[in-house]
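From the shared-data thread, chain only:
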Amino acid sequence: MVPEARLEQTEAGLVPASEGWFVMNARDARWIEQPGRGHNLPLTGADAHEAETFFPMLGMAIRVVNPGEPSGTYHWETEQEDFLVLSGEAILVIEGQERRLKQWDFVHCPPETRHAFAGAGDVPCVLLCVGSRQFQKDGPWGFYCADETAARHNASSPEDTQDGALAYARFAESRPVRYRDRLLPGER
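Structure, as tokens:
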């Protein structure tokens, strides 16, 4: 029988503290505020320790990105990634091309697909992000990439690199925070 995981209350919200199954509402969980890149709810681990200990097979996050903000830096990974627009609109930069996305658009990125997202429209974009972690701990995870199209959305790395500090140097440091009212759509 699989045990129920223990959830721990931190200053920023609930986090899993042991292996096992659990149920947790997104509003009660620990969020990460990423200045200039919106908010991120790392459902399956905010760092390598959490990911490898409790969620070694699958990464999943909810990202809330304001219009005109990138969700991250243009990159590719050694694993498959998939994305679903839950609400709002986004610009997808994929393999140097721009694609406009709207609610319920699904994006599939096979391994090594270069991509980034930026919020578009008049309201924040909410993305469900899922990626395999099967082989990441055993080798390089992927690469941040310099790209002209991504640069138009502040989503380009200054150069091709595996150094996250260099790829994200233009942004203020991220920090764990509690859920902010009305961050997710549908709240009054």
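The CA atoms of residues 40 and 148 lie 25 Å apart.
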